[in-house]
Amino acid sequence: MRRTFALILAALFLAGCSSAEPQANGPRVENCGRVETFADPPKRVVSLNQHATEILLALGLGDRLVGTAFPDDHVPPPEVAAGYAEVPLLADRYPSYERILEAEPDLVVGGYASAFDEAEGRGREAFERNGINTLLLSESCASAPSGMGTLLDDITMFGEALGLQANARELNDGIEARVQAVEQRLAGVQPVDVFVYDSGEQTAFTLGGNGVGNDALRRAGGRNVFDDVPKVFEDVSWEQVAARTPQAVVLVDYLGAPVQNKQSYLEGHPLASGTPAVRDRRFSTIPLVELTEGIRFPGAVERLARDLHGA
């Protein structure tokens, strides 16, 4: 009897400990050096960059997406365009912390690290102190080159966190199939040396080797002449641009920066104008959101392959 009584007391003690420290039933995901625990799938999500918003819509988040911000262009991909038009725009740039809280989110997603700028009061800790989970696309925090694998892993992560695992698997399968089809068509082609020009006059702001865009260019039969720069985007000198003799230029297109002006600037530049790419007027244009981590990755590979190789 004494033994039975002791077992009962032990069971009651353990039950009391369990009730005092409840465990979350939902998934735990690792993201940019943090662990995010979800007791339940988020019901109200704010996404602070267009490419992140497009991923969430493609996953089928639907009306659980209650706010977006910082659009990079006016034409989302057809598969998410209708849904994108329904998402409230909180700000043309980044909204304030207070404006985001007005949307009553239980998850805030950032496409770029700047979405969670601590100096502007939007640090991840600030949200989490209010019980709001945060997730950031991994390209923005990667210490090594990112690529299609980074995108696929993040889609899987979002699927786990949002309870949309089957949708994530389907989305990933579609991305891989489209990219593999391009790679098969390009098998054996000679890569084209490419300079990606985002902006800048004193220096050239260009695509480095650590971003998803660099991987898209490589899979499309291009070789980024600055793929040795360990950044997603970085400033380089015009002397470096000239020395690397690119055969083609990809102009990055986004709101507020007409690509026609960029091409004209390169054609009049004393150093850039002497490169084979500019002399031969071999220009291509690509939206910024296609060079960042998102569902436009296969479209970027297809576009660049057509422009560089006609394939």
From TrEMBL:
One family name in Pfam for this protein: Peripla_BP_2
Alphabetized UniProt keyword annotations: Signal
Stored PROSITE patterns: FE_B12_PBP, PROKAR_LIPOPROTEIN
Superkingdom: Bacteria
Domain Fe/B12 periplasmic-binding as annotated: residue spans: 44-311
InterPro entries, per database record: ABC_Transporter_SBP, ABC_transptr_periplasmic_BD
Signal peptide location: 1-20
Family statement drawn from the similarity comment of this UniProt entry: Belongs to the bacterial solute-binding protein 8 family.
UniProt-recorded name of the protein: ABC transporter substrate-binding protein
Species the sequence originates in: Saccharopolyspora oryzae
